[in-house]
Amino acid sequence: MGHFFRAFIAVLVLITAPAMAEPAPAFSLADSNGQQVNLSDYAGKPVILHFWASWCPACKMGQPGLQALAEQHADQQVVLLGVNFAEDEGVDPQQVLSSRGLSFRTLVKGKPVVELYGVKGTPTTFFITREGEVAGISNAYKPEDPELRDMLARIL
């Protein structure tokens, strides 16, 4: 009976133990102006890494909320960084954001980073700690969704 009990406790610990955070994969992409940006440029800062496309209605709905979260925590150096992919020909993603009244920086031609991060669709948002670890991933798009605040709390 003692072996069964120890095995049960070991399994219980494995099931309830928090998952180990994975390092966020390093990448380099250009923005709309051709300036190269590396994830490592934001080392030591909490990063909200948002994968999106201009034709995505859920992205359009959720982006103001993501920007508001980043702005509310600017004193904690939270960075919102977009990665645009699967974009229509001739679209300038940064101009699309500007036309929507949004100012966060977005990187373009993000397919290599999409593959690196295993992104399956839009919107997908990664929350990366100051230590460069992925603390959470969300597909939430409603600005009032508590999941977004919960994910942000993990990286502050």
What does this structure look like?
With 156 residues, the chain is of the alpha/beta class. It has a single domain (21-155), classed as Glutaredoxin (3-Layer(aba) Sandwich), CATH 3.40.30. Helices cover 35% and strands 22% of the residues. The chain is built from 5 helices and 8 strands; from the N terminus they run αββββαβαβαββα. It has a 6-stranded mixed β-sheet with strand order 1-8-7-4-5-6, with helices on both faces. Helix 2 links the parallel strand 4 and strand 5. The longest helix has 16 residues, at 57-72. It is globular, with a radius of gyration of 18 Å. It starts with a helix and ends with a helix.
- The strand line-up of the biggest sheet is 1-8-7-4-5-6
Shape: globular
Q: Rg, please?
A: 18 Å
CATH homologous superfamily heading: Glutaredoxin
- In percent terms, what proportion of residues is strand? 15-25%
Main location: other
GO cellular component, one term: cell envelope
Domain Thioredoxin: 18-156
GO molecular function: antioxidant activity; disulfide oxidoreductase activity
Descriptive terms for the model:
disulfide bond, AhpC/TSA, 156 residues, Glutaredoxin, 8 strands, signal, disulfide oxidoreductase activity, globular, TlpA family protein disulfide reductase, two-stranded antiparallel sheet
